[in-house]
Amino acid sequence: MAPDSQPLLISALPPTRRQERLAFAVMALLLLVFLATLPFRHHQLPRQDAFIPVVDTLLFIGDLITAVLLFAQFSILRTRGLLVLACGYLFASLIIVPHLLTFPGAFSPTGLLGAGLQSTVWLYIFWHLGLPPAAIAYALLKGTRVHRIDTAGSPRAPILAGVFGIGLLACVLTWLVTAGEAWLPPIMIDAMHASRIWEDIAAPLIIGMSMTAIALIWWRRSSVLDLWLLVVLWAWFIETVLLSMTAYRFSLVWYVGRFFGLASACFVLLVLLVETTTLYVRLALSVTAERREREGRLTSMDAIAAAIEHEIRQPLGAIVANANAGRRWLDRSPPDIAEVRAALEAIAADGHRSSDVMHSIREAFTQSDQAQTLVDANELIRETLSLVRPELEAAKIAVQLELEPQLPLVSAYRGQLQQVILNLVTNATDAMRAVPGRAAVLSMQCRPLEAHGVELTVADSGPGIDPQNLERIFEVFFTTKSHGMGLGLAICRSIIEAHGGKLWAEPGNPYGARFRMQLPARA
Amino acid sequence: MLTKPGMVFVVEDDDSFREALGRLLRSAGLQVKLLSSAQDFLIQDVPDAPCCLVLDVKLPGLSGLDFQSELAEANIEIPIIFMTGHGTIPMTVQAMKAGALEFLTKPFRDDQLIKAIELALERDRNRLEGEKVVSALQTRFDTLTAREQEIMSFVTAGLLNKQIAAQMGISEKTVKVHRGNVTRKMGVRSVAELVRMADALGIRRVKP
Predict the structure, then answer these.
(1) Which of A93, A145, A399, B195 has its CA 20 to 30 A from that of B127?
(2) pTM higher than the cut 0.95
(3) Could you tell me the CA-to-CA distances from A473 to A202, A447, A480, A488, B55 in Å, in that order?
(4) Which of A313, A318, A320 lies closest to B16 in CB terms?
(5) Could you give the domains of chain B?
(6) B68 CA to chain A: closest CA distance, Å?
């Protein structure tokens, strides 16, 4: 997978400032709640047997979905870090099941699965010792190419191995804490309160692991996922700190601690889902836009192909007709040499004409592979006019220029734009030839648009365009000219629209025709 | 074969193609009039000779197809051969349905065009001759008195003298005299011939 196609995923996308601020605000809020709880840490609350089943169920589902999302990210990015992290979440969610079942008072007074006094607390310790090492491994493995699993293979095998291994581990641990309870150091003195082992050994171990993970993730964080993982570990850390301060189940800090775990897991899951759906929506939109653009391009390619066909068939038809005529004049007795010569000359002229058509098409489209450049419309107009100066002078056409200075630059394929202007100027010149009596004036204007763009106007003093034809002249086969040359207005419009602009015609004032072209300025 | 030389009107907006067609058709011994728009054709004097129109489908102003229906509305009967640089099937169907003789896509073979033109001129000549016969008949018919014209329409409807007399409220003898005049003035020898003339003139009555 190419590196530049990765950052669409939250596990690779760097966080924005806003996301970072939100995450840190959440962490600060958690800290505040923690500090607010401290004065009441010895406060004992009534025992609620329904509390653990509800919290555990929510945590189970939340962690499971998070694990699935992470496996999905892994199947695309194939980094070992993601696989380890996903396994960590899967372990956290699976180990909740026996924890819930063995918790005294949840389903039976002493817990199911033949649980003893120590079973559920050991499961709690395993549970909380699961995710921090996974996060540490994730932080250590992430990013480096060396640790990437071969992307050519299917992601199914490592995922299945991970799921199977974690499932097995959860089963073994469950068996250990139930059937092998006697071999484990006792932590709980009775169903309500714990011995010093919890406060002195287990809790500090979890806290130490969490702190290491937090430090590593903080140090190496680079993606949106890292950011929220940090929040999870922070909540995890606070939960353990809170719980380490009490030896009693169902104390205030105990309740708040469990609540911490729940809130953070749900919150992170929500963030993951929101991020994923946002990315999905963006992806869907961009696919739609891309499809639309491709269709638009096809339509204009159609128009261009048809216009080229039309422009080429005309001289081609004339060449064939002239060749046949020449042959027939030769076959006569006596042959009419003058007619044959005229036919041959016409053939040569039509050959040149088709070559000119090809040339102007080439001029307009060979540059489309190259990058767009920033174009100063005024400069382009002056340059284009200098190209046609001899013809304008020969036709005794006066040029009136109104170019406003300080125009915004237009991002465009310069050659294409020049062909369009050239085409409009040539049309205007031809139109004015049709009205011999009037003074021939070609006026060109260029002015900035309020909506950040440039408007270019080409007006002539010719016969004008029949109002009912103002739109039809942009159709592929429509012509009001007696000799087709250049690109044709259909292609001109395709080019301008491909630049995000507009091209249309309107009656001149007081007579003649006016073509207006609007182009958006560089973004 | 042609009593008078035919005239081919070429309406094509592309200068060089129009000139090429002119050169080609003249080489085939045809009389050609080159025009650049449909409007130019309308202000032409169409000679009293077989004519045909070679028309480009896309024309400035009025398109070839629009022009075809305009001619039909104005009752101007002239065979039309269409040319196009880019023929679509619906376009061809529309033109042929409206009575076009041929639809050629550029570039086309010269004999294709010339053959189509000869066919068109032939058809137009037949139409002109038919028109001439009818107009001669009409001249003869106009020499009949009103009563004789009425009797001719009854006779050609197959009525007997006695029935005609009863219908018109005159004697059978008078009918016979008028009938003799009709036969003489129209220059016919049989009732069958008279019936054909009445058909051509469009005056034959249906038997009441």
Answers:
(1) B195
(2) no
(3) 84, 25, 8, 9, 20
(4) A318
(5) 7-132 (3.40.50.2300), 143-201 (1.10.10.10)
(6) 18
